[in-house]
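We now fix the convention by which a protein and its fold are recorded. The integers have meaning only within a learned vocabulary of local backbone shapes. A complete example follows; check for yourself that the lines match position by position.
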Amino acid sequence: MQHITRFLLELGSGFAFLGQQVRLEVEGDEFFIDLLFYHTRLKCHVVVELKATAFKPEHAGQLNFYLTAVDRQIKAPDDRPTIGLLLCKTQKRTVVEYALSGIDKPMGVAEYQLVRDLPESLLASLPTVEALESELDSMEIGASDAPTGTDKLFEGKR
């Protein structure tokens, strides 16, 4: 990180280093921006994300999230929109193009609500949330004596 920070500072004047692993909180969840700069001539923040792997489309979504969060939580009203820079080990031009093309297209996210629409007769044959949580807890603890899989969850329900 120190070498990359130095490299970015050498890109030209106007970059002010604001921090490394800059914490953002969104609805109680924590997120950390690898490097955050402010460009004094452009009058905008610059978010830099570092990836030690080849570019993946999900990296673009993560960077877009950080740009929006900085614009809404940190940016001053007279600042220009935040700029993002993703530094990856390698990239394939077409994959990057597809990932970034139309990133401003309308999209939506919804909760998966299949269980709410199931008939009572089917709901009765499914394990309860508590049973699932109990099974997951026993798997996390590594209880070797506990039955594994869904056999325990569906006991007596077949």
About this structure: The chain has five helices and four strands. Residues 57-73 form the longest helix (17 residues). The helical segments are 2-10, 57-73, 93-100, 120-123, 129-141.
